[in-house]
Amino acid sequence: MGNRANGGTDLAREFKAFETAGAESDRDRERSLVDGKTIQRPYQIMPRRVWDLYANRVVPFWCYDERSKLYPVSHSWTNNMKSQLTSVNHKKWPLPLPAGIELESVRTELLNLGAEYSWLDVLCLRQERKSESSSEKEARLKEWSIDVPTIGNVYADAADRVIRYMNGLGVAFRFDGWNDKRHWLKRAWTLQEINARNESVIAGLPKGMSDPIIMEMRNRFSTSAVGHDPNTTFQIIEEMSTRFSTYEVDRVAGISMLLRSPTLPIYNQYENAEHGWDRCVSHMQSSVRADLLFYFPKPGDGTLKWRPSWKQLMDNSTRPVRTTPNRSGASVEVEVVKGTPG
Question: I need a surface site. Which of 102, 103, 188, 247 has the fewest CB within 10 A?
């Protein structure tokens, strides 16, 4: 009887600790928002929710034990996504999946890879739907304002591994469609989902096939030097110009995170890209703004002349000039040849 009483006390203490952790997490997230427009300390913000693979339930992120293995999923959305309600996310919003794919098969693959927890956008981030009530839309937009610009943190800082589905969530790897605008390599958001420090793997890869993609992407887009090396800044911008997104402002938000701006603007899916770019520039490190001033040879054609407009940045009308050392060690100017969306 005494043991049961002690067990009850311990359980009550655990519940109290969970409640305290949850309240602190909510307060930290609210305090990160300044003047309703600016996210401060953005790289300390983790997602609100995580998928507990053993329990097969979406739980608050503070329930995740850092000693457990967290494998967030990076995937491209397909053209044939079908939505269904699921108890895994407590039926709070419909779960969009590619036609013919079951969530349980994705869970099984993640468990087989050694994951205990995962972050998956369709499960852990409120999803937009046509039948949204006004209260549901308000809740989603409020969450998205902070959560969407900081999604990259779970991949860059919390992940033990990143699991990538190149052709759609749960879809086996294919050797075709690399230039399709729905391919993983062509999506704007996946650019910030590259884990430069820890292991990443392609899910559904044929047995015995090596993964040649991730090492190249790591070498090209490691964020360790961003904000200090103009070549890295331009490389990120050039790569983003070849990618696609549901909303044009998504590409702007992705660049803000990748440039490691000390503060970030909140996300608004309805925002005009040029206005979003204006806000993005205002949050940049001064060294990155200097890059835009000194390495772009033409005046801007937007609201300001000292730096390129978003349109100029994305459509080849202005090409940045950067320096590279020649054989004697002196610096020479070279023109960056930007890619075009394909």
Answer: 102
Cα 246 from chain centroid? 14
Q: Which helix (H) or strand (E) holds 152?
A: helix 152-153
Write phi, then psi, for 69 (nearest 5 degrees): -90, 120
CA nearest neighbour of 31 among 23, 39, 21: 39
pTM given for the model: 0.83
Q: Where are the beta strands (DSSP E) in the chain?
A: 33-34, 38-40, 49-52, 57-60, 73-75, 81-84, 95-98, 117-118, 161-165, 199-202, 263-265, 321-325, 331-335
DSSP class of 206: P
Residue 183 near residue 223, CB atoms below 8 Å: no
Give the 3-state secondary structure of residue 225.
helix
- Sort residue 331 into left (φ over 0), alpha (ψ -120 to 50) or beta: beta
- The answer to whether the beta carbons of residues 244 and 341 sit under 8 Å apart is yes
Name the residue with tokens 């913000």: 45
- Distances 121 to 95, 106, 154, 315 between C-alpha atoms, Å: 10, 13, 11, 30
pLDDT mean values, one per 10 residues, the chain (342 residues)? 48 59 71 90 94 97 92 94 95 95 96 97 94 92 95 92 93 84 92 72 71 52 43 84 94 92 95 96 93 87 92 76 47 39 33
Contacts of residues 293-300 at CB distance under 8 Å and 24 or more positions apart, as own/partner, are: 295/230, 295/234, 295/320, 295/321, 295/322, 296/320, 296/321, 297/321
